[in-house]
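During the reporting period, our protein records have gained a structure token line. One record among many is quoted in full directly below:
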Amino acid sequence: MNTVPKNTARWACMCVLSAICLAGSNSTAQQSKDDVPIVVRASVPFYPRLARAARVEGDVHLLLSTDGTRVSAVTVKSGPPMLIPAAEENVRTWEFKNDIPMKFAVTFRYKVLPESACEIDDGTIVLRLPTEVEVSARGVQTCDPPADGKAGSHSSPSAKE
């Protein structure tokens, strides 16, 4: 009788299952450029003021469905609640080159940079459309001048009388 030892059969089965799992996870982990539509128009994303002032940062993961030319549905997978509405609002402005309806994942990465020294900073945006958007901005710092406009002077007007 020709039999295969149990350990050898079990090892071969594990190898085949591992190969199938690795092949399947690799195909879903990275979408090829051919599997996503081409963005032809989109609004500039922004960092929500309140989230920026509170120094809220993180990644927002969305799953988009398209009708072939526009976003038809947005499913939130994860992300900081203060950042999700801005990401959702931005993807709803996207228009695509005519294509077939499809679904794909997109990640918005929000990062608060060190505070600026009383300067207005509109931030930096990096677009790797349609799968990744990076939005960064300097933290908010309050820079109120002295009431009398003179640096170092703390006397009140009534004290000079």
The first helix runs from residue 6 to 29. Strands lie at 39-41, 58-66, 71-78, 95-96, 103-113, 124-128, 132-138.
